[in-house]
Each structure stands twice: as C-alpha cells, then as structure tokens.
Specification:
The protein is mainly α. Helix content is about 85%, strand content about 0%. Helix 1 runs antiparallel to helix 2.
C-alpha cells in the first residue's frame, strides 16, 4: 500500500466533466446514425444493401455506442465518488492532528 496518496480535485472534476461531455457527444452521434438509417430506409440505398446497412447501424453500431456512453457516465460518477471519499478521508485524517 502507498505511504502517500494525493488527488488533484480540480483535475478530477475536469476529467469527470470531459466524460460527461463525451457521453453527450455519443448521444448526438446515435441520433445522427438513426437519421442516416432513416434515410436508408426511405430509399437512399435501395435493396438488400440498404437494408443491411440500416440494420447494422441500428442493430449493432448504436447499441455499442450506447454501451460506451453508459461507461463514460459511469466513469464520471466513479470519479466524483472517489473524490468525495478522498475529501472525507482528508478531513478525518486532518482531525487527528489538531
């Protein structure tokens, strides 16, 4: 176990915010993918190729992006939780030296 543990709270907040922003960008990406799939279904690419591409976008790509978005949100929450735990430990440990 480490003798010294330090955390830059500001950097942790920035990292958490970046994770949230990335998750939001992934939501927008899924929305755009659905629009492309709608265009394919509307006849932009007719036949089996269009249907296969549309199905691939909706059935494989979007679920994968959704899982990635969930992970970024989870990481953002975990970072905030770790920061909260560290602050709590800092304040408890600081009280021992008064």
């Amino acid at each position: 176990m480490a003798d010294f543990i330090a955390m830059d709270y500001e950097k942790i907040m920035e990292m958490s915010q970046k994770c949230k922003e990335t998750a939001q960008l992934l939501v927008e990406t899924m929305r755009e993918i659905n629009q492309i799939a709608d265009q394919l279904d509307g006849g932009v690419l007719v036949g089996r190729a269009g249907q296969a591409l549309s199905n691939g976008l909706r059935g494989r790509l979007n679920p994968s992006i959704n899982r990635l978005q969930d992970k970024f949100n989870e990481i953002a929450q975990d970072l905030i939780g770790a920061m909260s735990d560290m602050r709590s430990s800092d304040s408890k440990a600081g009280g021992l030296f008064k």
